[in-house]
């Protein structure tokens, strides 16, 4: 960055500068005349030694990379007539954003004390600054909202199983301890239904893995649609699904499992030629949270009940 002269002796005029639009008074011109104009080569950082300063691009362009928690942000391009550093000048804080010349550029440098004098000189500069800052705040808020939405989208994605759309194991590991804790706190019952499709290996071997995937997605849809909005359906692993039933005691959970078992038996799976495949059945293990149980032993109890349902001949529920 090299000083090449004073603004007053340069080929640039105040009218071209956004910050001084409609504020081009003789007093403003006199104050700006002595400000240095510097030259920055393409790729060169605009050093301000962490001091707050206002830079107005006269020619070329600057790239501003906002300092974010992640260390990286989108680069904003600052074009001729536009400025950078207003906020740090106004709140007298170091500008942490990385500023680099995107082209060979010439900049007008205005020291903070002079910015305040320019503001004192007339309303025009103050009005332009306010307009600019409110625009920047709006843009920053919009960016934040977009990032929040994106974050929520990815969070959802990481908590759901791609094939069935049910919650996945990561969700379960996070949420089941919380649901158990809430059930203890509220002194409300909590039940689990562990579900395993019957002879699914045979189904896959006979109709192909793709048809198996469709069958799994159908089974998941059956479970999800048969539950209350306050219940949760999870893909526990492979062809094993789980229903979590808050506020539901063992008697009610058995009724829910029976309904799920019957719906599963009735569900029709179509292959991609839209030909109905043989009906699926499932085995169901029901367990309710006992006084001494934690989430782990609750899952083990539902798993043991499921094993008994398999042993007893499948297509049934066991407690
Ligand atoms: N198509 C498909 N198959 C899966 C998926 N996940 C697990 N499987 C299959 O599910 C089958 C489970 O087989 P097993 O554990 O032997 O159980 P099963 O054949 O259902 O027999 P039982 O549970 O005893 O009734 C395996 O063949 C797995 O490959 C999946 O995402 N898609």
UniProtKB/TrEMBL annotation:
Enzyme class, spelled out: transferase
Superkingdom of this protein's organism: Bacteria
Gene Ontology MF annotations: diguanylate cyclase activity
Domain Cyclic nucleotide-binding: 54-119
Keyword Cytoplasm: no
Domain GGDEF: 188-319
PROSITE patterns linked to this entry: CNMP_BINDING_3, GGDEF, PROKAR_LIPOPROTEIN
Transmembrane segments: none
Keywords: Nucleotidyltransferase, Transferase
Pfam family, one: GGDEF
SMART domains: GGDEF (SM00267)
KW Chaperone (keyword) present: no
EC nos: 2.7.7.65
PANTHER family per record: DIGUANYLATE CYCLASE DGCC-RELATED, REGULATORY COMPONENTS OF SENSORY TRANSDUCTION SYSTEM
Cited NCBIfam families: GGDEF
Protein name, entry field: diguanylate cyclase
High-level lineage: Bacteria, Pseudomonadati, Pseudomonadota, Betaproteobacteria, Burkholderiales
